[in-house]
Design goal:
Helix content: over 70%
CATH architecture of one domain: Up-down Bundle
Number of helices: 27
Order of helices and strands: HHHHHHHHHHHHHHHHHHHHHHHHHHH
Structural class: mainly alpha
Distance between the termini: 128 Å
Number of strands: 0
Strand content: under 5%
Radius of gyration: 33 Å
Length: 503
């Protein structure tokens, strides 16, 4: 009998499923890859969540403006309907925040409760509103709700950015999360400086620098440097970069012969960004002076070796910015024959960008400020190159960005020529190469100078310097007396207020 029971059990076993066994099997990975040091985690689109919350918040803020307008104009029936719509939108946003944030913080949950409570109070006041005597109380309640809502949005966005930055911790995240986080940072930084501040406050600068130096994530070095360049748009963020040892990281990358060119190019881009003259009240980076020569040598080496237009532009931009910061940069450039490298590069593909020419003109103009470096500029044909830059016409370009770059090239080329004219042989060379007729054209033709007063002043100054150095007789046949005889201000006023050529 016992044998029959066992037999029956074995027969029944063929059609039975033990749920405990199935649960264990489902919980086991199908395979493991020992080569992958990253944890397999679900990829979360932080940027998408931030965008969705921000979009809804903007819409609700606009509704608040309408609420206050209805109150001012005493359109009570419309205000009654609109207040209900606003509270519904707020509840929808709170639901969206639960989806965007895997686990809300206590402060967010408490603020959500407060906002919902303020919504209820507003609904109660609107329902019981029956006299203009209650108007002040109603406005106060709408103000309280708006302030509570704004604080809630700040808490949610800040928390999402902290979670996004947390994904930059290479030891605890997957490669895809790391890349998604950096992509989100780059995208957010393009939307405004306030986003860059939030990323910096969340520890973004330090986390990105850690990615840059982590050997196990070399695939992410280019993207992390680009993200750093994107967020370093404010003096306080640049100061944070210096505090976290960012300059040393950049210097190590640029001076490391084993680093790929693409990584060096991005490091040059970060350096160009943090030294940009366009950033008002920029933070002074003390470490630059201590490492200036190494930086100049590394950047010019990159300019010489690369065939990429983008990397050449980033490298020359960084060098140009360094020449603004300290004149010693010009001395180091002269020591390694940098003008030779720059002049010879203009015949190659990598420097054909108008923006690269802008940087070359800047470097030569800043070097020309000192007589000590004039020979290093003129020897490889710098005057010829600068006159070629003068002949660049804005009519060849369509976008505002290109036309602005063209204006800068014309202005800086004229400034460089003016400085070089302190020596008579250089002024004579400008005459020989027919540079004066183009300077005259830039003064007389507003279209050719992008209608720029800066180009006009630089061109007038160059003409007068050539005349002063070579003598009036050398320019008598060129019909430029109207431009060089009056006072500079008189010539400027005459040229800037006339659309016709002089006869």
């Amino acid at each position: 009998m016992e044998f029959d029971s066992v037999q029956q059990w074995l027969v029944d076993l063929e059609d039975r499923t033990e749920t405990e066994c199935m649960s264990v099997l489902q919980g086991k990975p199908l395979h493991t890859d020992g080569r992958n040091n990253f944890k397999t985690t679900q990829s979360i689109n932080w940027k998408g969540g931030i965008d969705e919350i921000s979009k809804q918040a903007v819409s609700i803020t606009e509704q608040f403006d309408l609420l206050f307008k209805c109150s001012d104009e005493e359109r009570w029936e419309e205000l009654h309907q609109l207040s209900g719509h606003v509270t519904c939108q707020i509840r929808t946003l709170i639901q969206s925040s639960h989806q965007a944030i895997p686990q809300s913080t206590l402060s967010i949950l408490q603020q959500q409760e407060q906002v919902i409570g303020e919504c209820a109070k507003l609904a109660q006041k609107v329902e019981s509103f029956n006299s203009r005597l209650c108007k002040v109380s109603l406005i106060n309640q709408m103000t309280c709700l708006e302030q509570s809502f704004t604080h809630l949005i700040h808490l949610i966005i800040t928390h999402l950015i902290k979670l996004m930055v947390k994904d930059l911790q290479v030891e605890r995240n997957s490669a895809i999360n790391l890349q998604n986080s950096m992509s989100s940072i780059i995208s957010l930084s393009l939307e405004g400086e306030n986003w860059c501040q939030l990323i910096s406050h969340a520890g973004g600068v330090k986390s990105l620098l850690n990615v840059c130096v982590c050997e196990s994530v070399k695939f992410a070095h280019v993207q992390s440097l680009r993200a750093l360049s994107s967020i370093c748009c404010l003096p306080e963020i640049i100061a944070q970069l210096e505090k976290e040892g960012g300059l040393c990281v950049l210097l190590d990358i640029l001076c490391d012969d084993l680093q790929p060119e693409c990584v060096k190019g991005e490091a040059a881009g970060v350096l160009a960004q943090i030294t940009s003259p366009a950033i008002e009240h920029n933070h002074f980076i003390g470490g630059l002076m201590d490492n200036l020569q190494d930086l100049v040598n590394s950047l010019m080496g990159l300019c010489c070796q690369t065939e990429s237009q983008e990397i050449f532009l980033l490298s020359t931009a960084a060098v140009a910015n360094l020449t603004f910061i300290d004149s010693m940069a010009c001395e180091y450039l002269a020591g390694i024959c940098a003008p030779d490298i720059l002049v010879s590069s203009t015949s190659t593909y990598k420097s054909q960008s108008l923006f690269s020419k802008d940087q070359i003109a800047t470097i030569l103009a800043n070097m020309a400020a000192s007589d000590d470096f004039h020979l290093s500029i003129t020897r490889p044909g710098g005057i010829n190159l600068l006159i070629d830059f003068l002949h660049i016409s804005p009519s060849l370009y369509d976008t505002e960005t290109e036309i602005a770059a063209c204006e800068r090239v014309l202005q800086k080329a004229a400034i460089a020529l003016t400085r070089l004219c302190r020596e008579e042989k250089n002024a004579q060379e400008i005459l020989r190469l027919k540079g004066v007729p183009r300077l005259v054209e830039l003064c007389r033709n507003a279209d050719e100078r992008c209608h720029s007063d800066a180009v006009l002043v630089a061109s007038l100054a160059a003409l007068r310097k050539v005349c002063m150095t070579c003598g009036n007789d050398s320019m008598a046949t060129l019909d430029v007396k109207q431009l060089i005889t009056p006072k500079l201000m008189d010539s400027f006023v005459m040229c800037s207020h006339s659309d016709e050529n002089f006869v």
